[in-house]
Amino acid sequence: MQQKLSWRNKLCFGLGGFGKDLVYAIVSTYLMKYLTDIRLVDPLFAGILFMAARIWDAFNDPFMGMVVDNTRSRWGKFRPWILIGTVLNAIILILLYLDVDLPAGQYAVYIAIMYILWGMTYTIMDIPYWSMVPALTDNESERSQISAIPRFFASAAWLIVGSAGLYIVKYFGKGDQILGFSRFSIAVALIFVVTILLMVFNSKERVIATRGTGEKTTAKGMIRVLLKNDQVLVVLGIALFFNMAYQLSNSFALYYFEYVCGIKEALYAVYTSVAGFAQMAALLFFPVLSQKVQKKVIFIAASLLPAVGFIMLLVIGFTAPQNLFLVGLCSAVINIGIGFMLVLVTVILSEAVDYGEYKLGTRNESIIFSTQTFVVKFAGAFSALISGVGLKLIGWVANEPASESTVLGMRVIMIVIPSILSVLCFIVYNLGYKMNDKYYKHILAVLHGEETDKIQSKEYPLNDKEN
User: Fold this and answer.
1) What is the pLDDT at residue 343?
2) By three-state DSSP, how is residue 434 classified?
3) Which residues are CB-neighbours of 328 under 8 A, at least 6 positions away?
4) Using N-to-C axis directions, what is the helix angle for 140-173 and 7-33, rounded to 10°?
5) Number of Cβ atoms within 10 Å of the Cβ of 438
6) What percent of the chain clears pLDDT 70, i.e. is strictly above it?
7) Are 27 and 122 in contact (CB under 8 A)?
8) Are 388 and 52 contacting, i.e. CB atoms less than 8 angstroms apart?
């Protein structure tokens, strides 16, 4: 029987999530606005760049997963890549916000190169980090905790960047926004490296494959793993719609509160602060809730609460757009659902790893978890395209009052599209995810050698192994 993870192990692994999401938050939240409003880069160029870079990253992710799964070292297969990716990504982050004095055309080339390199180096670190979750423990209770803790720390990172980021930039820059962002990025990069070092030296893989030959995974084998594991494909659809909704609303919020509501810093600070606390509360409550409530019930809440919250935000936008309390209330409803969904996606993807070993005879954590980062990147491409191209189509002009048609377009982008995507998450889950509690326990029992894998079609409808 496996020794339980200590709280030091769990918390240090979670701290890694804080550092890496601090980096992701400063880029995801502010880079588009930094380029269009401060550097005066054409929003169409920025949108196309963000979309192209994310698509490039997305298709790299499964191959990085294959590289990690084929790694053998005294430090395991995850930690070496986490450390290498962290150092490289921290350097690129600093260069991304560096105060470089270049003509407009040369700066566009510079930022394109830096942004693409930032995404690629983030991939090197991010895929093995999340791939470690099913390798740390196969205890269901511990896995719920180890999935929730880094998400909690990640939400804390987003809370800090979202609520205090503009004030930190103002403090560091003392009136110079470019200098402020540059110093802010250096601080974030240093925190990133320190937290990952703590994680690397206090976490190690403990769940090793019990089936299969242990041979290296080829490109053909990678495709087989992804196509034959039907539950990975379902999780892929869920994660895609969720991340599209989450990233689009998150990246567009600054524009919405400034040009639709008329107040940028105060409303955005309230919205993101409440979002962070709501997500953290949901993540803290999730391990307890998952012991008392069926996963499907939690999933319904995770899918529908954001849609309800966005509809509330739409109504408030017409009736009381600058009411801080009501905007905060909407944010709370939206982000309790988002908090639940953040951990649910990790949990069901971890279950898909076990299912893949049971069904196909190989345990491919990094390849399977690369699907999560794949859809996060693809969703980022979607949100960048909608944000950048959408701003151009609806007639937005930097630092100018928005027309009625522009305001309507912003409401559609910020509220209507994310609401529809949130509902689609539940539809995909309800139609495709078949790993009920009883069937999953059977899979674990087989993997532990406690049961044989007899075909029982009524009880275990997915027991159709293809070896």
Assistant:
1) 84
2) coil
3) 270, 271, 273, 274
4) 40
5) 9
6) 87
7) no
8) no
- DSSP symbol at 212: S
Residues in the chain: 467
Q: Which helix (H) or strand (E) element contains residue 318? A: helix 295-319
Q: What is the 3-state secondary structure (H, E, C) of 176-213?
A: CHHHHHHHHHHHHHHHHHHHHHHHHCCCCCCCCCCCCC
How far apart, in whole angstroms, are the C-alpha atoms of residue 134 and residue 85?
Answer: 20
Structural tokens at position 349: 């993807």
Choices 3.40.50.300, 1.20.1250.20, 2.160.20.10, 3.20.20.150: CATH for 15-207+216-447:
1.20.1250.20
Do 22 and 154 touch, CB atoms closer than 8 A? Answer: no
Q: Is pLDDT above 60 for 144?
A: yes
Distance CA 319, CA 328 (A): 15
Task: Estimate to the nearest angstrom the gap between the alpha carbon of 189 and the chain centroid.
Answer: 19
Angle between helices 365-393 and 230-259 (to 10 degrees): 30
The pLDDT assigned to 259 comes to 86
CA–CA separation, 34 and 50 (whole Å) = 13
Amino acid code (one letter) for 416: V
List the end-to-end C-alpha distance of the chain, in Å, as a whole number: 27
DSSP letter at 412 equals: I
Chain Cα centroid distance, residue 154: 9
With b meaning 16 or more CB within 10 Å and e meaning fewer, what string describes 190-204? ebbeebbbbbbebbe
Which pLDDT belongs to residue 457?
A: 43
Per the structure block, which two tokens stand in for 444? 């674990």
Residue 70 has pLDDT above 90, yes or no: no
Q: What are the CA-CA distances from residue 303 to residues 179, 306, 382 (Å)?
A: 40, 7, 19
Percent of the chain with pLDDT over 90: 26
Distance (Å, whole) CA 228 – CA 237:
15
- Model confidence at 441: pLDDT above 70: yes
- Give the Cα separation of 73 and 282 in Å (integer): 37
Q: Are 24 and 215 in contact (CB under 8 A)?
A: no
Where along the chain do its domains lie?
15-207+216-447
DSSP state of 209: -
- Average per-residue pLDDT in the chain? 82
Q: In this predicted structure, what is the pLDDT of residue 452?
A: 64
Give, as one character, the DSSP assignment of residue 211. S
By three-state DSSP, how is residue 205 classified?
coil
Beta carbons within 10 angstroms of residue 167's beta carbon: 12
Residue in this structure with the two tokens 């019990």, named with its chain if needed:
210
d(CA 12, CA 425): 31
